[in-house]
Amino acid sequence: MQQTAVREVRAEDITREVARLCQEANYFLDEDVTGAFTKVLTLEESPVGRDVLEQIVENARIAANEQVPMCQDTGYAVVFVEVGQDAHIVGGDLTEAINKGVEIGYREGYLRKSIVGDPFERKNTGTNTPAFIHTTVVPGDRVKVTMAAKGGGSENTSQLKMLKPSDGVEGVKQFVLKAVAEAGPSACPPLVVGVGVGGNFEISALLAKKAALRPIGSRNANPFVAKLEEELLTEVNKLGVGPQGLGGSTTALGLNIETFATHIVALPVAVNIQCHASRHKAVTL
Amino acid sequence: MAVKRITTPLTEEKVADLRAGDSVLITGRILVGRDQVHKRLYELLQAGKDLPVDLTNEIIYYCGPSPAKPGQAAGSAGPTTAGRMDKYTPDLLAKGLRGMIGKGYRSQAVKDAIVENKGVFLASVGGAGALLAKRIKESRILAYEDLGPEALREFIVEDFPTIVIHDMYGGDQYAEGQKLYRRA
Ligand code: SF4
To answer: Which residues line ligand 1 (CB under 6 A)?
Structure first.
């Protein structure tokens, strides 16, 4: 039998990198987000809306310069791990390594601990753990870690619905528009809207999360879906919600759709609402 | 868009001057509390017990700041979603609370209670926590330290920027502002 070389990845390196990603995600916005702000500042029709956008840009500048979190809700730590099938994690348990990284990152980075250990008791764990970890095994010998600091206010306005196939594209559109309108100012617009269509109940939610993590302005490889992204973004911005819900032409900075195969009876659609503090960073080890 | 400056406490006379859409810069002491603080205050009221603070003419800021870095009075401190406090708000307004700072839609019951008790709901920019922290000069825990970031605090603020959403006359800036830009 042919032997494949296995590459070792140390758990302590994963911990260190996760800690760094937690802090950097909370202090520094990616260029796709800052670029989108610059663009909408010239397009926003409402004077109040422009004033809000300017405050958001100034806030991002302060956060980066002073290395303080741009928002006090420093998020759920959502961690996507892609483990190469030829990578061997040594010196510890992967889940523990990630949680330790989150704990250190949040403690040393002056980030808020927002996780309660039990949904009924609601006692803060004090460490911002457990992280919400999604692991997949992929070809190769590397480990890719993507960390998203996901705000609770915007997450709370996310929605999922099992539509009927006969609802079609129009049904999907109406559901997305309804979710954005209902989210309103609670989700801190301007938003990045992540839409997942297809799969089943949990796959659609995961697709929506992945869509929200895709860079603003990137387009789905499927031309039909790419066109739908453009159309829906235009329609979302016609809702008039505007920056902070105070009215305006910028309700969303971006709208991304991810799709997957589904059942003959099903048309699941999930809308993951991401606020303007669109914070995520990745590293490959 | 009028810019108005107010100092706390927020008396009925001062609140009468505020209209939906006004920009308001607040200076003075404000209370800081969110979900769990509201739940506890509400339960004390239900049980007919005393509150740990007098709410008369106070403003409460719905906020759970991030930890302060050395040299900061408070960590990042933007608003949290106000709707989660809706269940408790009418009773607190009836108890003398005058103003609230947060973000997001309020229930009809809260809007009615604002008019009835001559209160005001203001918004600060959600997600602008680093910028807003610069207007906070002092921060102190008043009660419920066990709640961590959710403890009941007071902030001493200077020119803290807000915008009036619901005024005591029934004005609603979310509805008014959005109507102007709705194209659908
Ligand atoms: S929704 Fe986003 S920007 Fe708004 S408070 Fe929450 S994390 Fe911050």
So the answer is: A 71, 73, 151-154, 187-188, 275, 277; B 78, 126-127
Q: Which residues pair with A79 in a beta bridge?
A: A133, A147
Is the same domain home to A139 and A259?
no
Domain span at A170: 153-278
For residues A115 and A99, is the Cβ–Cβ distance under 8 A?
no
CA–centroid distance, A265 to ligand 1, in Å, is 36
* pLDDT tens by residue, B128-140: 999 999 999 999 9
Cβ burial, residue A137 (10 Å; 0-12/13-18/19+) = exposed
Sort strands A76-84 and A132-138 into parallel, antiparallel or unpaired.
Answer: parallel
Residues of A in contact with B64 (CB under 8 A): 72-73, 112, 114
For chain B, what is the domain count? 1
Chain A nearest CA to B123, separation (Å): 9
Q: Are residues A159 and A238 in the same domain?
A: yes
| Predicted confidence (pLDDT) per residue in A85-115, tens digit | 999 999 999 999 999 999 999 999 999 999 9
Q: What global pTM score does this model have?
A: 0.93
Among candidate residues A150, A175, A201, the one where a domain is terminated: A150
Q: What is the CATH number of the domain that holds B92?
A: 3.20.130.10
Residue after which a domain boundary falls, among A150, A165, A181 = A150
